[in-house]
Every structure is written in structure tokens, then in C-alpha cells.
Design a protein that fits this description.
This protein is of the alpha/beta class. The chain is 38% helix and 18% strand. The strands form 4 sheets. Strands 3-2-1-4-5-6-11 form a 7-stranded parallel beta sheet, with helices on both faces. Strands 12-9-14 form a 3-stranded mixed beta sheet. Strands 7-10 form a two-stranded parallel sheet. Bound molecules: uridine-5'-diphosphate. Its cofactor is NAD(+).
Length: 337
């Protein structure tokens, strides 16, 4: 079994991946500055270090004399709108800090990296489903920063012997089926938690951003991927690198798209409640359709998603009702969004 350093392991996808690594028998050290993550989300079986992933001194101290087999680098900023309003924050938080982390890794001979990339590297798609060799023309600062880190890894692979897997996530969604881990962004901008909040009455009616898209029901289509399936992709990526594979870039999506209205219908089915919704203008920068071509990850990593849209909604609903249902002191959620 391997010893894995996980940056951003207190975040949404990171915390689910940490749980999956531990369940598979790996040793895990989480580095997270808790600027966006939640201490309570870190599995108690992991060692936790509260530090910035770009803090050279803290990282160097952590890596000295400790043989990490690989690093999974989740730490970073994820909000498209914020990246447009405050690009410096994204350049610093996503690019500069990654460069610092990779310097420390290099100095300590840790050269296997799994990186959280994004479908945002593609920009407005020319073809859907989107294969990995689709042109890379991000339309947001966020997407640009993810692409730059991918390129940095490619350069470091050529020059310094790094081997890496960059996973281009489509729409991560859902929660751990046991209801003890889930999505808790603050502020929350994602469709599924907002729809569930609207159904519960803990959030305002859902605004449907755009009803005039060239899609069958006029609303935008996305490829929703269960967070535990996404966690599995990280495990497979680590195993792939440890087995000596060269790595590369992989889409992580199901290959199936669902419209906003389909998501709302699934939310109503699962919750047994109406989801109050109002029609609103398109959100700037939102393409009509983003759906992965996931053939490469299936073929090369043997990855298969286990869950569909209804599972995603069911697990998200379980998590959110535990959060808001006055049982936050239980094994369920944690306060603070
Ligand atoms: N969306 C929406 N209302 C909301 C939030 C999102 O209609 O309050 C739509 C959004 O326009 C997109 C889809 O839901 O088509 C998924 O958006 P989300 O923010 O969850 O993820 P993104 O695709 O932006 O990464």
C-alpha cells in the first residue's frame, strides 16, 4: 500500500478521495489551510497538517525524511465568477502555489502527481461529447490557471522526470452514500445543493439560468459525475502511476448529459417535494452543453462510474437533510457551509 500526500484534502472532492484511499489501505497525510475546506471533513485515520500547499518551508519540513509515493494536488480555488473579478487571486492561488509545491516535490524526489484539472480547460466546445484532444481555449481565468498547471506538469515531466495524471473533472456532484460527507461550499453556487436547498425551503427558489439554449428543453446540459466515482478515478490514477505508467490527461465524466430541468425533476422525485424555481437569464460564460467523452479513462485506467443522476440526488439529499435537520452534532454534517 502507498503513502500519499493529499493537498486540499479537507475540501469536497479531496475529503471523499481521502476516505477512499484509506478504505483501500493507503496511508494519507492531508495538507489543507482550511481557507475553504472543513477540518471535520478529514477522515480521522488521516494525518492532518494545517498548512498552505504553497508554503515551501512547511512542505519541505513535512517531506524531509518521509517517503511519499505520490501527491494528489486538489488545493486550489474553484469559482469561475470570482476568477474573473479577482484574477490575481487565481494566478497566485492556483499557479504560483502549484509551482512552489512542485519545487518542493522535486527537491525531495517526489515526482508522481495526480492533479485536479477541469473541463473548463476546453472553453466553449466545438464538439460534444468532448474528447481530451479537443482544442484548449478556456473562457475563464479559472480554466486558464488549470491549463497552466497542466502545462507546467508536462514541462516537468519532460525535464525533471515527473509522471502525472491530470483529471479533467466535469460536474462533480452528490455525497458519500453513508451521509457523513458531502458538499459544503460557501458561498454555494452549484445547481444540485441549491436545488435541494430550494426543496427544503432553506434556500430561495432556484433560478434556472437560461431557458433559451439550443437544447431539447432550452436549459443547459452538463455531465454530472458522482463524487465517489470521481474519488475512484484518483485511486486508479495513483495506482497507474505507481505501476510505472507515464500518465497523461483524462476526462472524468459519465458521457451522459442532463439538462437543468432534468436535474430539477430528479430532485423532485428523490425528495418527494417540489423544487420552487424561477426562470432567469443565462449566466455569463455558461456553454449550452458540456459532456465528456470518457473513453480514454475507461480504456487506460479501467474506470467505470457506479452512480447515475438519481443516486447523486439521493445521496446529496441525504447529506443535506442531515446537515439541516437539527442533527449536526451527529456523525452527519458540520456547520459553517
Ligand atoms: N445553474 C442554474 N441555476 C443555479 C446554478 C446553476 O440554472 O442556481 C445551471 C448552470 O447554468 C449550469 C448548470 O446549472 O448550466 C450547472 O451549474 P453549476 O454551477 O452546478 O456547475 P458548472 O457547470 O458551472 O461547473
Amino acid at each position: 500500500m502507498a503513502t500519499i500526500l493529499v493537498t486540499g484534502g479537507a475540501g469536497y472532492i479531496g475529503s471523499h478521495t481521502v476516505r477512499a484511499l484509506l478504505d483501500a489501505g493507503d496511508s494519507v497525510v492531508v495538507v489543507d489551510d482550511l481557507s475553504r475546506g472543513h477540518r471535520e471533513a478529514v477522515d480521522p485515520r488521516a494525518e492532518f497538517v494545517q498548512a498552505d500547499a504553497g508554503d515551501r518551508e512547511r512542505l519541505a519540513a513535512l517531506l524531509t525524511g518521509r517517503p511519499f509515493d505520490a501527491v494528489i494536488h486538489f488545493a486550489g480555488l474553484i469559482a469561475v465568477g470570482e476568477s474573473m473579478a479577482d484574477p490575481a487571486r487565481y494566478h497566485h492561488g492556483n499557479v504560483v502555489k502549484s509551482a512552489a509545491l512542485f519545487d518542493v516535490l522535486r527537491a525531495h524526489g517526489v515526482t508522481r502527481v495526480v492533479f485536479s484539472s477541469s473541463a473548463a480547460v476546453y472553453g466553449e466546445p466545438e464538439t460534444v461529447p468532448i474528447p481530451e484532444d479537443h482544442p484548449l481555449r478556456p473562457t475563464s481565468v479559472y480554466g486558464e490557471t488549470k491549463l497552466w498547471v497542466e502545462r507546467m506538469l508536462a514541462h516537468y515531466a519532460r525535464a525533471y522526470g515527473f509522471r502525472y495524471v491530470a483529471l479533467r473533472y466535469f460536474n462533480a456532484a452528490g455525497a458519500h452514500p453513508d451521509g457523513t460527507l458531502g458538499e459544503a461550499h460557501d458561498p454555494e453556487t452549484h445547481l444540485i445543493p441549491l436545488a435541494i436547498g430550494a426543496a427544503l425551503g432553506t434556500r430561495p427558489p432556484l433560478r434556472i439560468f437560461g431557458t433559451d439554449y439550443p437544447t431539447p428543453d432550452g436549459t443547459a446540459i452538463r455531465d454530472y459525475i458522482h463524487v465517489c466515482d470521481l474519488a475512484d478515478a484518483h485511486l486508479l490514477a495513483v495506482r497507474h502511476l505507481l505501476a510505472g505508467a507515464p500518465g497523461g490527461v483524462y476526462n472524468v465524466g459519465t458521457g451522459r448529459g442532463h439538462s437543468v430541468r432534468e436535474v430539477l425533476a430528479a430532485a423532485e422525485l428523490v425528495t418527494g417535494r417540489p423544487v420552487p424555481a424561477v426562470e432567469a437569464p443565462r449566466r455569463p460564460g455558461d456553454p449550452a452543453r458540456l459532456v465528456a467523452a470518457p473513453d480514454r479513462i475507461r480504456r487506460e485506467l479501467g474506470w467505470e462510474p457506479r452512480y447515475g443522476l438519481e443516486d447523486i440526488l439521493r445521496h446529496a439529499w441525504r447529506w443535506h437533510s442531515r446537515q439541516g435537520g437539527g442533527r449536526s452534532g451527529s456523525a452527519g454534517g458540520w456547520p459553517g457551509g
